[in-house]
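Tip: read the tokens left to right.
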């Protein structure tokens, strides 16, 4: 307060009273208070000075953080991928199974990468690479938002950032790694040319099949140098950068649709960026890659196992394929060496030793796949992928592109018992229920288009029990049963037992009963193992343990649940025992053990199956027809191995029998412990006129090293065969199981 005395008030010239300085300040202060009181919103909302101050403070903090990060983060030396370790794969007992080869990489200069290949990569991964900065904050925020909101993991990284991740850092998804990637990319972009960064990216990126870099990819997929790649081929290799495992159409034929979609995206991007003309784009066709030439260390079954394990670990989010490819992992599988050897020997003895492409060209099309699972543990104890990974790259045990045929029918019956289903006239469905087995009889109760499936060889059976219809694989009966149960319930039961819900052609229609679905051999083994385990299902396991640098990595926890009742599973087992004892699967008797099983044949004899189990072991075997030459399509096996037809009751069942016998030779014989559904115990005898000969692949099931034949040529039933006369080709009993979806 001022010590000066107030000046006396003097009248102003205009008549207003003149104020002292102190009085003026007091009045102004009072006016401001009055205005604030009148404007209450200021107490709720910040002033513009506060907003501006906060914004400037944030900018200062962010700017300071960026400057500090730029100064503190240095460009490190190249990561360990330049000296990649091998992965070691072991059998369940710890004995060596396979070892990855060294990194498959050959660095080349950018001058040896055609411009159209460079443009394809840019169109796939970063179209603004040459015009943008090293990082794209907007894309990073967008990718982070998509990840948080459940639209899938996305990196939002530029090619510069991806190169930094590949060459200097690692693949772990952490904030620390992303922050380092951000600052290293900025520094690198200031010190290295765009061409050098692109070259580094092309030489370090993973293209699948253990191929690192564009040169290795060109050799692996097309058997040529990178400089010889066409536009179409370059676009396919650019497609693989997004997800090699998801777009490899040779290792996984089921990937073809999405791979072509991604390939078109790349080419359309090249057109949009004016790197490719529209007429040239229209003239291009999808370039199917060659069968890979795997490293010699992957020969025999080793490569199939390594690839299956890689897929298993990636599918269960244990280790992704890119990270696994960096090496240094020690993986113990569930495979048992003696049983693995037994499977290889059984396929050789019963099938491959009789293949003679020189005598019969069709024999070059013969392929085989198999898998065996311990029903109580869910462990895959043996797997047969093909004759040799270095000669036939696709794993026939895990591929999902062949129809399963009549091996699907047991799932229909299981669903019937599980749901207490009845026939159209109200009779409960059990092994003794009588159906009309007339050929091409339209199914009743189906609201869709008329469906009248053919029985094999157009044969009619008249009234026939479910058990006998299973023995003979009667299509008319099982299509009707699928409608009686509900095709949607059949579909769900198959999924519950172990068939992936995404399996192609697993559709809720009457045709589902005839097996148009294209599940893999391993999928089918899992489902049959659930039946063998009395309806208790646990996802199969292929890996016993995995470590990195001595540290154990967690595996998925074992989860088992009763997916169908014990009565439903065991009653299915009882009718499948009948298939082996006197139906289409009598060749399986050579295993010398109580067994249950089902034969199946795909449309046009492109695949023949035998799926079966003992109390101790579930095994599925498939013989497949595939053209050995591009485009490697499926082919019928008519005339292969000197046979008119290849059916599930012949070669697949013989392989199954020898493998099962040898795999269990040191274990005591066990019988099935079954709890059957009501009215399933004592089947009534069939009238003679409805007691025909077995059909599915009614050809001679053959012998295993002198074992007794189940049937003989000419149609005379052998031990355990159902009586009757044959009606098949070449004097053989007719076979059933060919699926004719939609007819």
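Filled-in amino acids:
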């Amino acid at each position: 307060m001022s010590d000066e005395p107030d000046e006396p008030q003097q009248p102003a010239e205009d008549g207003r009273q003149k104020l002292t300085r102190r009085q003026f300040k007091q009045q102004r202060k009072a006016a401001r208070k009055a205005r604030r009181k009148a404007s209450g919103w200021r107490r709720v909302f910040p002033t513009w000075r506060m907003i501006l101050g906060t914004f400037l403070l944030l900018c200062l903090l962010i700017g300071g953080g960026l400057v500090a990060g730029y100064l503190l983060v240095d460009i490190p030396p190249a990561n360990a991928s330049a000296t990649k370790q091998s992965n070691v794969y072991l059998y369940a007992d710890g004995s060596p199974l396979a070892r990855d080869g060294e990194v498959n990489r050959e660095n080349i200069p950018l001058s040896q990468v055609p411009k159209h290949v460079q443009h394809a990569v840019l169109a796939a991964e970063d179209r603004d690479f040459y015009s943008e900065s090293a990082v794209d904050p907007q894309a990073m925020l967008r990718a982070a938002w998509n990840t948080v909101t459940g639209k899938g993991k996305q990196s939002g990284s530029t090619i510069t950032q991806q190169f930094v991740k590949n060459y200097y850092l690692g693949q772990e998804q952490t904030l620390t790694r992303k922050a380092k990637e951000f600052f290293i990319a900025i520094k690198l972009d200031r010190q290295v040319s765009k061409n050098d960064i692109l070259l580094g990216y092309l030489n370090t990126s993973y293209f699948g099949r253990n191929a690192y870099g564009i040169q290795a990819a060109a050799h692996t997929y097309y058997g040529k140098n990178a400089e010889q790649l066409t536009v179409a081929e370059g676009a396919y290799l650019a497609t693989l950068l997004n997800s090699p495992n998801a777009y490899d159409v040779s290792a996984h034929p089921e990937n073809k649709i999405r791979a072509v979609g991604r390939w078109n995206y790349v080419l359309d991007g090249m057109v949009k960026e004016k790197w490719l003309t529209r007429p040239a784009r229209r003239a291009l066709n999808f370039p199917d890659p060659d069968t890979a030439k795997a490293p010699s260390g992957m020969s025999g079954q080793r490569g199939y196992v390594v690839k299956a394990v890689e897929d298993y670990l990636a599918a269960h989010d244990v280790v992704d394929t890119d990270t696994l490819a960096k090496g240094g992992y020690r993986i113990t599988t569930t495979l048992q060496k003696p049983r693995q050897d037994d499977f290889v020997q059984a396929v050789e003895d019963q099938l491959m030793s009789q293949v003679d492409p020189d005598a019969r060209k069709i024999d070059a099309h013969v392929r085989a796949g198999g898998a065996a699972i311990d029903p109580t543990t869910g462990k895959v104890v043996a797997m047969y992928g093909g004759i040799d990974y270095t000669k036939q790259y696709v794993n026939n045990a895990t591929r999902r592109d062949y129809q399963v045929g009549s091996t699907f029918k047991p799932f229909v019956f299981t669903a019937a018992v599980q749901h207490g289903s009845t026939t159209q006239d109200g009779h409960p469905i059990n092994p003794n229920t009588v159906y009309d087995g007339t050929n091409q009889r339209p199914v009743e109760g189906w609201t869709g288009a008329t469906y009248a499936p053919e029985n094999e060889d157009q044969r009619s059976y008249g009234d026939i029990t479910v058990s006998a219809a299973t023995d003979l694989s009667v299509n008319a009966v099982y299509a009707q049963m699928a409608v009686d149960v509900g095709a949607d319930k059949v579909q769900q039961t198959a999924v519950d037992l172990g068939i992936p819900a995404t399996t192609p052609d697993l559709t809720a229609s009457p045709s589902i009963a005839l097996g148009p679905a294209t599940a893999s051999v391993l999928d089918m083994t899992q489902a049959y193992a659930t039946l063998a385990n009395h309806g208790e299902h646990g996802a199969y396991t292929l890996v016993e343990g995995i470590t990195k640098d001595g540290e154990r990595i967690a595996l998925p926890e074992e989860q088992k649940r009763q997916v169908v009742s014990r009565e439903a599973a065991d009653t299915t087992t009882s009718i499948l025992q009948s298939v082996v004892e006197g139906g289409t699967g009598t060749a399986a008797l050579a295993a010398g053990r109580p067994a249950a099983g089902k034969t199946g044949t795909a449309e046009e004899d492109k695949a023949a199956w035998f799926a079966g189990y003992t109390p101790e072991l579930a095994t599925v075997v498939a013989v497949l027809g595939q053209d050995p030459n591009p485009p490697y399509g499926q082919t019928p096996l008519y005339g292969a191995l000197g046979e008119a037809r290849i059916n599930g009751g012949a070669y697949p069942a013989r392989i199954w029998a020898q493998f099962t016998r040898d795999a269990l030779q040191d274990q005591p014989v066990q019988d099935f412990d079954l709890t059957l559904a009501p009215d399933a115990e004592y089947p009534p005898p069939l009238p003679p006129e409805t007691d025909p000969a077995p059909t599915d692949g009614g050809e001679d099931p053959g012998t295993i090293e002198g074992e007794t034949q189940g049937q003989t040529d000419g149609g005379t039933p052998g031990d355990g065969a159902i009586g009757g006369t044959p009606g098949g080709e070449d004097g053989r009993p007719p076979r059933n199981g060919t699926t004719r979806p939609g007819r």
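The two ends are 106 Å apart (CA to CA). The chain has 22 helices and 16 strands.
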